[in-house]
Amino acid sequence: MTPPPSKRARTSSTSGDTNRMEFEELTKLKRRENMWFEDGNIVLATDVHLYCVHRGVLARNSTFFKEMLELPNVGNTSNSEVGSIENGDSWEGKPLVRMVGDRDEDVYHILMALYDVRFYSAHKPTTLPVFLSLIRMGTKYNFSHILDEISLHIKLAYPTDLDSMVERTYEELFVCYDNNNDFQLLLVAEQCDMKILLPMLYFDCADSSLSTILEESKDLDLPNSILLKILRGYEKISRYATQRGIRSFSPHRKCTLSCQTARMELFANYTENPPYFSVHDLLQRNPIKVDKNLRLSVCENCEKASFDASEDLRLEIWNAIPSMFELGSWEDYRSE
Fold this sequence. Notes:
Elements lengths: L22 H6 L1 E7 L5 E4 L3 E5 L1 H7 L1 H7 L10 E3 L2 E7 L2 E6 L4 H12 L12 H14 L2 H11 L26 H11 L6 H9 L3 H11 L3 H26 L7 H16 L5 H6 L8 H5 L3 H25 L12
Parallel strand pairs: 1-3, 2-6
Antiparallel strand pairs: 2-3, 4-5, 5-6
């Protein structure tokens, strides 16, 4: 059972105080046992749990907390607000900071990342909820070390150079990857201004099926500005997918009758049954799956011409990705 606070928080009767936790609400909160340290010297309160942690740990890892905790009113009984954090109350004689507007799971995840070295690392996969929490809390409160780890981690799945696309993998980023992860991550990346993530996230979302784009947009209540960027990208990627078929098989390229016939049939098969994620596959140099017998009928010169044309298209698409979504050019991301 959670003990009562050492002194009741004083609240004013002004309308500005209507969103503040009342004494009765505070007493209903439960301790998060694995984040309640008996030697802790500050208590964080969400709308679900209380966390007794250490001022020094927060201040050392977050410039926001460092500056906030240096204010003279932290731990006193007069309420004040700093950003989205209400402070000035106490709990069992320890300063109480109310994490106004923060999700309980976000506060828990960031504290776990600070206190348990096994919880999150750029060198092992994590879950999407943890990743989203760390982005939200890391950017909001400037946990610089956590943000550095995230930046290192995301390059495996969301590269900013074409060479890295060949080795692109999600397995080292997420424990369980789902294509729909991209839409959730895009929304949080936009909200938190994680610019380094945006080009590839927009590209991944736009390379989904139209039904997926519309369903995810509805489920996540994506802002119209984001949805419009995705839809414009979807149109461009669809055209690039067609271009890949043309440049791969060049059905009207003059050659022997058997070679030209084979390429025409390969092109027809490609357009009649367009492969999923064709443009993604091109960027990662994954070959188009085709009828082996038809492929054998294509001559060596046409194979080389096809490869060269596809490589030119690959570079063209890569360079166009940021501008597809009104995000500048890749040069803007070199220093990120």
